[in-house]
Every structure is written in structure tokens, then in C-alpha cells.
Amino acid sequence: MAKKVFVSLVLILMVGRAFAQSNFTLYNLNNTPQSQYENPAFRSSARFGIAFPPFSGLSKFHILNSGFAIEDVLQTRSESDSLNLTIGNALAKMGDINYFDIDIRNEVFAFNYTGRKTSISVTANHVFNSSFAYPKALLELGYYGNGSPETIGQRQSFDQIGYNLTSYLEFGLGFNQKIGKKLVVGGRFKYLIGLANIQTEYSHFGLLTDEKTFDLTVDAEASINTSNSLAFFNSGQEFELDINELFSAFSGISNNGAAIDLGFTYDISKKIHLSGSLIDLGSIRWRNRVTNYTISPFEFEYKGIDLMQYLDDSVQVFNEIIDSLEQLSSIIETNSSYSSSLYTRFYIAGSYDVLDKLNLGVTWYNSFRTKRYRTGLNLSANLKLRHWIAATANYSFYNYGNSNLGLGLNLRLGTIQLYGMTNSFLALLKPEATRRLDFNFGMSFQIGKTPEYKKSAEDE
Amino acid sequence: MTRLLSVVFFLISILVGTSSCKKLNKYSDPTNISESSWNPILAVPLAHATFGVYDILARTDSSELVIIDDNSGEIALVYKGEVVSFDAEEIISIPDAQTQFTYDMADFGIIPIPSFIASANTTSSETFDINPGNGVEIHTITFKEGSLGMQLTTDLRHDLTINISFPELIKNGQPINETVNLIYSGSVPQTISHNISLVDAIGDFTINNTTVNEIVGEVSITMTGTGEPVSSVESIQAEIEFSNLKYRNATGYFGQQSLGGHQDSILLRIFTAGTDGYFELTNPKIRLEMINSFGFPADVLLSNVKTVNQNTGQEYVLTGYPTAISIAAPSVIGQTETTIVELNNSNTNNLSTVITPVPKYFHFEANGISNPDGPTSTLNFIEDTSKFRINAEVELPLEGFAYGFKVTDTVDFDFSDDIEEISSILFRLIVNNGFPVDLFTGITFVDENYLPLLELTDGSELVVESAQTNTSGAVNQSTEKITDLTIQRNDVPLLEQAKYIILSAEAQSLNGSDGEIVKFFDFYTISLKLGMKVQTNVTF
Q1: Which of B2, B36, B51, B428 to mutate to test binding with chain A, by most A CBs within 10 Å of its CB?
Q2: Do B40 and A143 lie within an 8 Å CB cutoff?
Q3: A306 chain-B contacts, CB cut-off 8 A
Q4: Cβ contacts from A onto B, under 8 A
Q5: Do B531 and A144 touch (CB under 8 A)?
Q6: Would strands A272-286 and A256-267 be described as parallel, antiparallel, or unpaired?
Q7: Per-domain residue ranges of chain A
Q8: Which among A64, A142, B278, B507 is most buried, taking Cβ atoms within 10 Å?
């Protein structure tokens, strides 16, 4: 039973490694209408495009456990097919703070018009971001115990532990303009309606076991804001979607926000292209059913039972211990509105047309997510086989020590456009080694042809 | 061609996806995991305490520990007892005194007459003796309680008026003088009783400084005729009695009263747990506090002062101490005179060594005598609240050395818990010792026949290490000692057989076996911390 629980837990945590919504593959498939989510200066190949459920469907799914992969915890024995449990190995590979993220973007509606020089788009998406930050020290404490050489005598820092969840509706109005023959600039203004949020504003928790005396010192300080969280947490205890609560929460919502996307493309020459974008710069003000939970700075040192006091009044000794611990659980609740930033990211890319149908590129990605800065570099080979089919293969390197292969394919079959891509193709080849899994797919209706697309078709 | 490529692309994706799912299969089957173990180590503090000198040396009775030098804080253990105790009633009590007398017609000067209608009178003086005995000579008494009773019976058929007075018995500023009437009612015998309270009365029992213990009463009886005859046989029988006499105070000479033979043993509790050991206190003292509110001097004779080792019964007799101790008396009623006599190394031969052999009791005997020099020109006095006490204190300034001081205890033990998932338990004892004392401890698990099964300590292990002292023997630096005691998993079968734990401790002062003198002060503390570290072994 213990094995089953353990393995289940590991698998839940293992399935993939994607981080902070980097989507190099989509960025490189820049003639797909959906690539405008990564750079609003990208132009579609169709005059008109429209997408709506069920045809648009799930456009993006991304899951990550940054701490460790399956093979870090379960290693195959060389002499047999059985597995060794190597938690210590996994812990050694973990960062001080690790994340388990799930990001989902559902395209609810999209319309775009692309003229000779001007393109406009209207989009509606539901965005869901969930991130659980877990310190390595927390797992070390569970694995080694507080009295082991690895943990004793040093503060086991659970700082930054926390959960962040944002669910919002995004209504975008996009515009891009071709300026001259080389430059395209674009932007999108997005009006946001926040559905639910959990924000760990800060958290400081620690446990110090004195190496000599084994005295325990617990410190704590935290601030957590929530809005409409009860829609997800039934009775505040278990994760369970409560439809009634959800309806009640979302009616009369006033969690408003705004964000912008900015982008450009510039053809330095016929073969050399430059592009860049800034995505999701904005925030949401949370006002609905807000609860702010604050744990004031607190430190409790437990030195064992005071024998002198115990001899005088044994009951009082334990009462005082309980009183001290109750301070830890003494959470102040207020109801003040607050803001949360979106997961802002920006790309800078350059590419070179090696052949008519082959383009090589490099893309630099940056993101800011709940005070985390992430960056990655991507090398890509983008193949435009025919005017209606494009594919990309790319390889990404991230500053948190991971790399992965991305593949993508975009088809335009008449008025139907299909696309599918992943930034973590190696997860499919070697799933036990991956910490990230993501895929994007969808379809839309594309009507008409832009002058560039027409020219491309005619050239073929 | 392109369409073919796209088809191939999708086929590859499906194949790769299927392959990756297969690869994950083995990870999702827990049975593929070879047996593993989880060995976290848990550490927790269990208890702590800081003990001062009062907590250690005088926990049951803080009055036993006193500071004998306010400036330095040097301390001593003081054990108290009461050797002699007398109250006033035990020294002097006043007995009842009574006198009976008879008056006949001749005393009235009346001859027989058929009808007597005149009056006649007779008077007399009566002496009352209140001698308490034992050579006590009472001069004056102020009464707290007591009464003067008179009972009179006659067969005379006439009225009588009886007057009784005590010129030297003053109450409310006036001599006691009482008159009662006996009116003939037609029948005989006639009887009358009368009581006079003596509360607050002051009596002079010297009859104008001519004697002691005596007082005179004047009686006068007047007979008034009723017309009834008087024959020659009638008489009057009278009885006057002092009874239930209690004094508020008294003066006189109270004689050479024996203050009896009294003895007491003072328990020196600090040594009660010891089974063996040598210690020597450099400056022990026995302080006798003699409190006297009687108005007479006394001598106290000390005898048979010794210590008794309760374990062996061996006695160690103190010699060379002054046997006769003069007790001063207050000069004014209501005051108390205190005489303090201290026995120490300078006025005894062997006080330090008498304490040395782990005594349990200090034994005293005392006899006393009042007015050892006989009567003097100054009168003795006594009050009802007068007391005579001899309080004894054994003062042991904690200055000296000790070694081999042993304590052993056996406690029941029963262990049958399943601790399969525990590899070892380490108990860590940290002692920060501010006392100049080493303590060696042994912990041994034994079976029902007291045969050793497991020794938790390394023999008799030093767990409390003495603090460091300066040249005068005072602690100038505490010492920390960490002791780890470990029970391994393979010790568990032995623990399951164990029925008792034998705990032993042996203490010695810093370099006590070399005779190094150490001192104890009121600021000494010792702190203890006990923690536990558990190595677990969970297999799955």
C-alpha cells in the first residue's frame, strides 16, 4: 500500500517539465493565427480566421514538476528490470525551491482579419495557471528526518512554500500594422475578468533542530490572499469543484484587470528576420470574496518539558506548550482587495533563410512568474514545405538546467487549419527523464489568402 | 509527397506516444520496486531544568538552607530541633487551700435562753496555706482564675450575718470583703454557700513579710435573735476554700527545680539517601538558642552529644564541649532573655569528624536546674505565658570535601512494546554544572534475579562534571558534560527480559579524594537537558 501511494505521488509530480509558458514552437510557427498569442505582430496567412468550440478546443496544456524526474527517484537496476528507490538522488538534483505547475489555455473564441497592411483580431480565452512551490528542505525533512547530518543544526527553510492559482477570462482586441516593407508592429489590449485566485504573497517557515541539544525552533510568517477560492475548495478543506459555489462566486464578479501584448517583426534583409514581443504585461485587481490570511511573525522554541514547572504543576506545562503552538495557527483574516500580476514574458528572435523552404532561427525567452525569473534559448529549424504546410523542429536550453526538443506542424487544408506541437518532445521518447510535458493543438477556419500567402502559393 | 510526410509525421507521433506510455508502465507498478527502506532520524528535546541550591539541597524544606554570609552568598544547611521546652504550669502550679472551723454559743457569749431576741457577734482570723511544694516560696500572686468559696451550716433558729475579708487579697483596688445574710425560715439546719471570683485579684502571701505561701482571712458573724430559744448545743460550721487557682503572674523564690532530662535527635536529611562515602565539612556548628522568659536563672547541662549512623548503628560521640551552660533571666516581667551558645571546632575536640561518617541523626541530651545558686535578694517571677526553650541548630556550612558518596536505587521495569521500526535510540544528557561536584552514574538493566542484562552506561560513567573553582574553593566556571546513551535494536531482547533497573550514583566534590576544599554559594546552578534521537528503519 505504501508503495502504491508513493509511486502515485511520484507519478503525479513527474509528468513533465515545462516552465512558465515558454512556447518556442508556436513562436516559430509564426504563420499560424495562434502564434499571435506569442507575438501580436505575426500575420496570419488568411484574410479571415475564426475559431470557436468545439473546434478550437483545448489549445494549450502545460504541466511541470521542476524538482525531479521519474528516473531521479526510480532507477532501473542494471541486472534486472526492477527499480531502485533513490530519493536521495532526487533530492540532490532538486533546487532549493521547486515548482509543480499546471497551465491551461482554452481558446473560447477567436476572429482575425488580415488586410494588406493591417490586421485585427478579437479573441476570448480562459486561462488557468496553477503553481505549487515546494522547498527541497521540506522533502529532505521528510526523507532524512530532522536529526540527520543533512538537516540537523541548520534551519530547514520552507520559505517561499506556497500555492498560486489564477483563473481568468481574457478578452483581447489585437491590431498589427505593416509599416513599409520591413516592419510590422502589433499590439493587443486585453480586458481580464478574474474568476478565482490564490496568491501566496510571502511565506517564511523554518525549523531548526539544535545539533547539540535537539531543541526545536519553529518560525513562521506568511500572507496569503484568496478570491473566490471557495469555488475550488469545498468547505475550504479539499479540492473539489462545487458548482453551486462556482455559480455564486462568478455571478456579479468584479475582479477586473487589463493587460497588453506588444510585438514587432523586422526584415533586416530578404533572408534575415528579427522579431520580439512582450506578452501579458498586466494585472488583475481582486475584489470578489476576498480573504487575506496573515500569520504574524512568530517564533517558538521547544526545549522539552520544564521539569521544575512540571514538578510544580504538570498540567500547566502542557497548557503553555499548547498556548505557544496556538500562536502558530493564529491566523488573522481580513478582506482587503489586492492585485496579482500576470505571467509576463518576452521573446527576442532572429532567423535566417538558408533555403527558400528552410529557415534557421534563434529565440531568447524570458518570463517573470510570481517573482521568478526564467530564461531560455531556442535554436530552431523551420521548414515551409508548401504554402499550406509548415513544420518546425527546435531545441531549447533553459537556465534551470534542462533542455528539450520541440516539434510542431501546421496544416492549412483549404479553410480548415490544424496545428499540433510540443516543446517537450523528448518527454515522449524518454518520459522517465522528463520534468515537463506540454502540447498545443487546435483547429480553426481560415478563409481567404493574404497577399503574401497568395504569392507563396503562386511561387510553388 | 507532402501529404505523405504529414501522414508519416502523425504516425511517428502516435508510435512515439505509445512507446512512451509503455516505458512508463514499469514505473507505475509498485511491485517493480525492489525492497527499500526509509531511515529518517528524528531528534526531539525531552526535558530541561535548571536547579538552584535551594532546589537541590532544600527542596522539601527551604528553611533548611540559609545564607550565612550576606556579602559572599555562602550557604549552610541548618537542621533544627528542640531539646528542652517548659511552660509555666510545669514549673509552678498553685494548689487548692481550704480551712474549716466551728463557732459555738460560747464564741458568741450567749447562755441558753428560752427566747432570744437580742444580737451577738463573734470574729476570728484564719490562715490559708497555698504552698506549691518543691521549695517554692510564693510572695505574691496575680490571679488569672480561681475562686474563694464559703459554705456555712448551722442549727441555730436565728438570723445570721456573715462577713469575710482578706486584707492582703486586693481586687479592683479594694481588699476582698464580702457579707452574706442567712435569714431563719422556720426550719433547721440552715445552709448558705457563697463564692467570690479571684480573677484579677492580687494576693500577698507574706503576711507582712513575715512568712511565705500564707494569707490571712478575717471572719465576723453576727447573730440576730428571732425569739426562738437558744440552747447550749447549737453551733455554726464554716468552710472557706481557695480553689482552681491559676496565676497570671507570681513572685517569690521558686527553688531549685529540676528542668528534667530531655533529649532530641535532629535528622540531617541531606545524608539520608547515602549508603557510603566520606565527607568532611571544615566548619560545622551546633548552635543552642536558649530562650527564657521565667524570672529566674538556670543552668543547663549538655550530655551525650553524638551522631548516629542509622545504617550501621555506630555512634560518634562529641567530646570537649562545655557541659554546664548558664541561662540568664530577664529582670522585668514580660521580657525574654536569650542566651546563645555555639559549639564549634574551637570549643569541641572533634566536631568535624563526628559529622564525617555519613550520619543520619545528631543526638542531644540536656538537663537543667533553676536557681542553681539558691535564693538571692532578687525575687523570682513567673507569668502564665513564661516559657523556657532550648532550640538546637546543626549548621553545616557547605565548605569542605567529599568523595565516595553513593546512592543506589532499584526501580521496576517492564518493556514489551513493539519497536520494530526503530534501529536505535540515543538519549543525550547535557549537564551544565555550576556546582563543584562530580557525579558518576551507572544504569544497569537486570533480570528477576538481579543478574545484569544490559549496561546502558559505560560502567560508572561521569555524567556530571565538576565546575572549576578558584583558590578559595568557590566556583568560577561551570563545566558542560554531554553524555550519550544508546540503545540499539539488538538490545531489545535484553530489555524484554529485564525486570528492574539499578540506578547508582557516586558523587564527589572537585578533587575530593585529594581533600581539596570547595565552597557552596547561593548562586550556584546546574542545568540539565535531555534529548532523544531516534534512528528509524521503515521498510517497504
Answers
A1: B36
A2: yes
A3: 47-49
A4: 140
A5: no
A6: antiparallel
A7: 2-459
A8: A64
For A318-347, the pLDDT digits (tens) are: 777 777 777 666 788 999 999 999 989 899
Mean pLDDT to the nearest integer, B210-226: 94
Q: Does B7 touch chain A if contact means CB atoms closer than 8 Å?
A: no
Q: Percent of chain B, pLDDT > 70? A: 91
Residue of chain B minimizing CA distance to A71: B27
* CB spacing of A409 vs B46 below 8 angstroms: no
Q: Do B49 and A306 touch (CB under 8 A)?
A: yes
Residue with cell 505574691: B140
Which of A3-12, A62-71, A75-84, B143-152 comes out lowest in average pLDDT? A3-12
The per-residue pLDDT of chain B, averaged, comes to: 87
Confirm if A377 and A361 have CB atoms less than 8 A apart. no
Local structure of residue B270 (DSSP, 8 states): G
In the block, cell 534575415 appears at: A272
Q: CB of B203 within 8 A of CB of B251?
A: no
DSSP secondary-structure letter at B230?
A: B
**CA torsion B129→B130→B133→B137, rounded to 10°?**
-90
Q: Which range (A336-345, B43-52, B362-371) has the least confidence? A: B362-371
Which segments within B254-352 are labelled E, that is strand?
258-267, 276-281, 285-292, 298-308, 315-317, 324-327, 337-343
Of B237, B273, B271, the closest CA to residue B103 belongs to B237
Out of A6, A152, A214, closest to residue B45 by CB:
A214
Compute the average pLDDT of residues A345-356: 92
Interface ipTM above 0.85: no
User: Are residues B529 and A432, on separate chains, in Cβ contact within 8 Å?
Assistant: no
* DSSP-assigned beta bridge partners for residue B78: B395
Could you give the dihedral angle defined by the CA atoms of residues B164, B166, B171 and B174, in that order, rounded to the nearest 10 degrees?
90
B540 interface with A at CB cutoff 8 Å: yes
Q: How far is C-alpha A294 from the chain's CA centre?
A: 25
Q: Cβ atoms within 10 A of the Cβ of B73, count?
A: 16
How do residues B451-506 score in pLDDT, each as one tens digit? Answer: 999 998 888 899 999 999 999 999 999 999 999 999 888 888 888 888 999 988 89
Alpha carbon distances (Å) from B521 to A363, A435, B112, B525? 78, 67, 98, 9
Interior angle at CA A296, CA A291 and CA A301, nearest 5: 140
How far is the alpha carbon of A153 from chain B, nearest alpha carbon, in Å?
11
Looking at domain A2-459, its CATH class is mainly beta
Place of cell 542484562: B453
Quote the pLDDT of residue A232.
58
B528 and A307 in contact (C-beta within 8 Å)?
A: yes
- In the predicted structure, residue A250 carries a pLDDT above the cut 90: no
Q: Name, in order, each residue with C-beta under 8 angstroms of B346's C-beta and a sequence gap of 6 or more.
A: none
To the nearest whole number, what is the mean pLDDT of chain A?
A: 83
Contacts of A429 in chain B (CB under 8 A): 16, 19-20
Three cell numbers written together for B149: 468559696
Using a CB-CB distance cutoff of 8 angstroms, which residues of chain B are in contact with residue A91?
Answer: none
Q: Which of residues 14-73 of B touch A (CB under 8 A)?
A: 16-17, 19-21, 23-24, 26-34, 36, 38, 40-51, 55
User: What's the one-letter identity of residue B473?
Assistant: G
**Number of C-beta neighbours around residue B268 at 10 A:** 19
d(CA B428, CA A214): 9
Is a pLDDT exceeding 70 seen at residue B2? no
User: Per DSSP, what are the bridge partners of residue B16?
Assistant: none
User: Does residue A118 surpass a pLDDT of 90?
Assistant: yes
Q: How far is A319 from chain B (nearest CA, A)?
A: 16
For residue B201, the one-letter residue type is A
Task: Give the residue from A304, A139, A457 showing the smallest Cα distance to B527.
Answer: A304
**CB-CB under 8 Å, A216 with B33:** no
